[in-house]
Design goal:
Structural class: alpha+beta
Distance between the termini: 75 Å
Helix content: 25-40%
Oligomer: single chain
Largest sheet: 4 strands, antiparallel
Order of helices and strands: HEEHEEHH
Shape: flat
Number of strands: 4
Strand content: 25-35%
């Protein structure tokens, strides 16, 4: 009886240590592909600052290097009021539990959001990004294969010959 009680306590203890993950999604989303979704391309200009910036980030928190790099980029974007960092370069100094990252690059910001127009389309065609002159593409016409028809003929002859042989053997 004592052993059963001990076993029950051990099982309850192990069961209480199990990890439980619960995921809830409170936002309503809609995929951007499929029926009922109309996509309208939006263009924007990217304004890149000509002067290079330098931003310093340091932390004593033990996290992964990718975490610290993303935090350094986020700090640099806030400091420079940037939407994007062009050609970021990292100088990383890791000393014990402290990490220091110096980010250098060019800050860029998006401006002049607008719907795609015919003039924009011709610009994209001239730049070689789109090519409307060729149409959606040419599909090659199906070609009949003589080898395939020979294979079908051989299969039919084998079936007929097998049927004839089975008829003779009966």
């Amino acid at each position: 009886m004592k052993q059963m009680m001990l076993l029950g306590i051990v099982l309850l203890t192990l069961d209480s240590c199990s990890l439980q993950k619960q995921v809830t999604n409170t936002s309503k989303t809609l995929g951007i592909y499929g029926a009922g979704v109309i996509q309208k391309p939006v263009l924007t200009n990217l304004k890149v600052m000509p002067q290079k910036f330098t931003s310093r980030y340091s932390s004593g928190v033990s996290q992964t290097m990718d975490y610290h790099k993303s935090q350094a980029i986020a700090k640099a974007m806030i400091e420079n009021k940037a939407d994007v960092i062009i050609t970021p370069a990292y100088e990383i100094i890791n000393s014990g539990s402290n990490i220091s990252i110096v980010v250098t690059g060019y800050s860029g910001s998006y401006e002049n959001f607008r719907q795609l127009t015919g003039a924009d389309t011709s610009f994209l065609v001239d730049a070689g990004i789109m090519n409307y002159n060729d149409g959606p593409g040419e599909t090659p016409a199906p070609q009949s294969s003589k080898k395939k028809s020979k294979n079908v003929l051989i299969l039919l002859l084998l079936l007929a010959g097998g049927g004839a042989l089975s008829g003779l053997s009966n």
